[in-house]
Amino acid sequence: MEPPSSSSHVQEQNVAYRESSVFAESFPSSAFDEAPEVLVEDWRWRSHVTAPEKLVWRALAACTDYGRQPGSVVLSTDRVVKRLNGMHRGKHRPTNVLTFDPPPGLPGGDIILALETVVREAQKAGRPVSHHLAHLIVHGSLHLAGYDHHHAGEAREMEMLEARLLSRLRVPNPWKPRS
Q1: Apex CA 13: angle with CA 10 and CA 18, to 5°?
Q2: pTM
C-alpha cells in the first residue's frame, strides 16, 4: 500500500487498472529503471545533511546487490511518520524509518524517515546525522528486499549486512560501540 504522503504529488489515477497484474507487464522493464524519487518534505533536513538527495542515492547504490530499490524516499517529519505509523501499524508514535512494500506486481516501495527522531538518535549516539541517515536508508532498502530483525539470528544477519554496505560509503559500523 502506498502511503498517502508520497502520493500527494500524483494525479488521481484509475486504481482498478493500476492494481491489475497486467499493469506492470504492459510497460517495458526499462520504465522502472529510473533512480528513486527523493522528496525532501521539510527544509530542516538540509540544515543537518548536506545534499540529502545525493546521500540517499549513494546509500541506495551501495545496496543494489542486496536491497530492493524503492520508488521513493521521503525525508519527512515526526508528525507525518507518527500518523502513518498509527494508520498502518497501530503504533501512535513516530519511528525513525517506515518502509512500505509496493502493490503486488509492481517494483519499488517507499522509505519514509522522520527528521526529529533521526536527529535525536544520531545526537544520542554521537554520530553525524548523515551517517545515521545513510544507515536508515540501507536498513529500509533491506526491509524492502525481505530482510527483517524480529528474531536474534535475523537481526544479527541484517546488522552484519548493514555494516558491510555502510563500509562502502565510508560510514563506520553503527553496531560497534564508539570509543
Answers
A1: 110
A2: 0.79
For residues 20 and 43, what is the distance between their CA atoms, to the nearest angstrom? 37
pLDDT digits (tens, 9 = 90+) for 113-137: 999 999 999 999 999 999 999 999 9
Output the nine-digit C-alpha cell for 69.
Answer: 530499490
Give the Å distances, CA to CA, from 128 to 40, 53, 80.
Answer: 19, 16, 23
Q: Could you report the per-residue pLDDT of 12-23, keeping only the tens digit for each?
A: 333 333 333 444
Q: Which residues contact 108 (CB under 8 A, 6 or more apart)?
A: 32, 36, 68, 69, 70, 71, 72, 102
Using CB atoms within 10 A of its CB, is residue 77 exposed (0-12), middle (13-18) or buried (19+)? Answer: buried
Other CB atoms within 10 Å distance of the CB of residue 45:
21
